[in-house]
């Protein structure tokens, strides 16, 4: 069996024995979509979108916000091997860096795809969500967003030395960048002084693209700036991860 | 003389440029024998283990496992090595059997072969009754046995056990010692670090005594005793007691074997 396949199989085993992260990443945003969609419908009406269900903001908003939590999932997939003292065994087994890190990304990648599919599907089936523009653009935005998240997870694992740092940075970062980027409420509803700095959040890039397609009927060509920004950041983060990820770098966990 | 499964030649390894963990070590381990690495804490045993397993590279000198550099030789040579590091490394939520299967697959086994190999390893390590129990719910001794069994999933030709009986109860210790004897009898080269000198005598191991990164004594237990044991003090009527490896160790290092990480030693 190839090392990559063995790593992926093992990650799936671990997920099967402890599916709580996946359940939370999908269940919690659904709950919030249900709770917030009516209010967001009023907000969208205030913004000039008549007869528009709030899920047309909450579905992409929750996908972005809870997608960001996957940065911690990727980072933790690496940190926990140190905590369980299995990291030296993986290395001694001859699992090379590329296979090891690719294997660690594969399951979170699948979780992100599943998360987006379930949230948009729930929106369509239950909350009246629809896309006024091209579904292909939505799919491309989701892929670029997922790529950015996965690379951010690797970079976090490379740059952070302790699991406490990973928890703090990813959880706090998700809430701050998610709120700043317009995942909870549209940017135009944020305080005036916050609105100019909203584009500093990568969540903003995704949300602007999603809103252009979902609310304003945009197509693939219209969201190229969002796609380029997210893909560019993904490349930058991947470069950082490649430069800093070391097989033998010590990581402090709970042990 | 068998060909060396592990050969270190002039190995030097430093950390941070200041601390020289290994300082010109020449050593080999041959098929069918146990090489016991002894020495006080900080002598360089774990560094030597890391080098032998290909987890780190020497600053100078060469490390060869079956003729290849384990650090650069890739999966082919790594799969000839079985490593049980000093700290127990298992997946706590996976069962005993699944842990064994997972590591067999990581060593390249197909799923069916991995399942068969896992089943083979249960009995020698007294894990049959625990096969379906999550590793995190095993006692320390049971985890220690699983940890040692994982080192054998790939049928390695060189097995490296770094303090495999540290903190283990007598039953666990006996299972592990028997497994080591069986491995050597089957032609495997075993590198075994420990602070428990009676184990070394029971394994009939070749001994390398490390002190401050150097090998200061090498040979069988009998050879070391003959060469280095201090003379018995003269005394009429005192019964003659054969000097042990412990007396040699004390004579050469000036230290007791009971060190902070060896608490619980028999």
How would you describe the overall organization of this protein?
The complex is a heterodimer of chains A (255) and B (266). Chain A has 255 residues and is an all-alpha fold. Chain A contains 10 helices and no strands. With 266 residues, chain B is of the alpha/beta class. Chain B is built from 9 helices and 9 strands. In chain B, the strands form 2 sheets. Chain B has a 6-stranded mixed sheet, sandwiched between helices. Chain B has a 3-stranded antiparallel sheet with strand order 2-1-4, with helices on one face. Chain B is globular, with a radius of gyration of 19 Å. Chain B starts with a strand and ends in a 13-residue tail after the last helix. Residues 260-266 of chain B have low confidence and may be disordered. Chains A and B meet through helix 1 and helix 5 of A and helix 2 and helix 3 of B.
List strands and helices in order, with pairings.
The complex is a heterodimer of chains A (255) and B (266).
Chain A: H1 3-17, H2 20-46, H3 55-68, H4 70-83, H5 87-92, H6 97-126, H7 135-159, H8 163-180, H9 202-214, H10 224-244
Helix pairs in contact in A: 1-6, 2-3, 2-6, 3-6, 3-8, 3-9, 4-6, 4-7, 4-8, 6-7, 7-9, 7-10, 9-10
Chain B: E1 4-15, E2 19-30, E3 34-38, H1 45-52, E4 60-65, H2 74-78, E5 81-84, H3 96-106, H4 111-122, H5 140-150, E6 158-162, H6 170-185, E7 189-193, H7 197-202, E8 206-211, E9 214-220, H8 221-228, H9 245-253
Parallel strand pairs in B: 3-7, 3-8, 5-6, 6-7
Antiparallel strand pairs in B: 1-2, 1-4, 8-9
Helix pairs in contact in B: 3-4, 5-6, 8-9
């Amino acid at each position: 069996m190839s090392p990559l396949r063995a790593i992926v199989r093992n990650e799936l085993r671990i997920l099967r024995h402890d599916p709580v992260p996946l359940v939370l990443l999908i269940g919690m945003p659904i709950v919030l979509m249900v709770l917030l969609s009516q209010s967001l419908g009023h907000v969208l009406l205030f913004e000039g979108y008549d007869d528009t269900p709030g899920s047309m903001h909450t579905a992409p908003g929750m996908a972005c916000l809870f997608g960001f939590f996957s940065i911690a999932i990727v980072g933790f997939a690496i940190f926990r091997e140190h905590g369980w003292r299995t990291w030296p065994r993986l290395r001694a087994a001859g699992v090379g860096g590329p296979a090891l890190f690719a294997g660690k990304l594969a399951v979170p990648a699948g979780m992100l795809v599943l998360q987006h599919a379930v949230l948009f599907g729930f929106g369509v089936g239950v909350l009246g969500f629809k896309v006024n523009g091209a579904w292909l653009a939505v799919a491309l935005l989701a892929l670029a967003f997922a790529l950015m998240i996965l690379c951010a997870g690797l970079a976090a694992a490379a740059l952070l030395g302790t699991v406490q740092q990973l928890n703090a940075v990813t959880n706090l970062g998700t809430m701050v960048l998610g709120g700043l980027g317009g995942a909870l409420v549209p940017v135009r509803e944020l305080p005036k002084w916050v609105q100019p700095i909203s584009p500093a959040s990568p969540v903003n890039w995704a949300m602007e693209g999603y809103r252009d397609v979902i609310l304003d009927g945009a197509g693939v060509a219209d969201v190229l700036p969002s796609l380029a920004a997210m893909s560019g950041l993904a490349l930058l983060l991947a470069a950082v991860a490649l430069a800093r990820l070391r097989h033998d770098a010590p990581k402090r966990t709970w042990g | 003389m068998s060909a060396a499964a592990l050969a270190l030649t002039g190995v030097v390894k430093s950390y941070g440029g200041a601390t020289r963990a290994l300082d010109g070590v020449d050593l080999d381990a041959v098929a069918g024998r146990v090489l016991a690495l002894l020495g006080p804490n900080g002598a360089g045993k774990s560094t030597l283990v890391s080098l032998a397993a290909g987890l780190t590279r020497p600053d100078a000198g060469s490390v060869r496992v079956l003729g290849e550099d384990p650090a650069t030789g890739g999966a082919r040579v790594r799969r000839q090595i079985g490593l049980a590091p000093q700290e127990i490394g298992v997946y706590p939520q996976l069962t005993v059997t699944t842990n064994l299967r997972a590591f067999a697959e990581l060593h390249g086994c197909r799923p069916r072969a991995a399942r068969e190999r896992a089943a083979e390893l249960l009995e020698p390590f007294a894990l049959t009754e625990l096969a379906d129990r999550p590793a995190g719910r095993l006692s320390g001794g049971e985890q220690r046995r699983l940890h040692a069994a994982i080192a054998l999933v790939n049928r390695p030709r060189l097995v490296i056990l770094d303090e495999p009986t540290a903190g283990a109860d007598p039953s666990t210790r006996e299972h592990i010692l028997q497994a080591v004897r069986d491995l050597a009898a089957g032609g495997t080269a075993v590198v075994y670090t420990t602070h428990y000198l009676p184990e070394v005598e029971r394994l009939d191991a070749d001994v390398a005594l490390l002190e401050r990164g150097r090998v200061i004594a090498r040979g069988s237990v009998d050879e070391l005793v003959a060469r280095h044991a201090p003379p018995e003090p003269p005394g009429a009527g005192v019964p003659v007691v054969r000097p042990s490896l412990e007396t040699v160790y004390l004579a050469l290092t000036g230290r007791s074997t009971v060190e902070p990480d060896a608490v619980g030693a028999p």
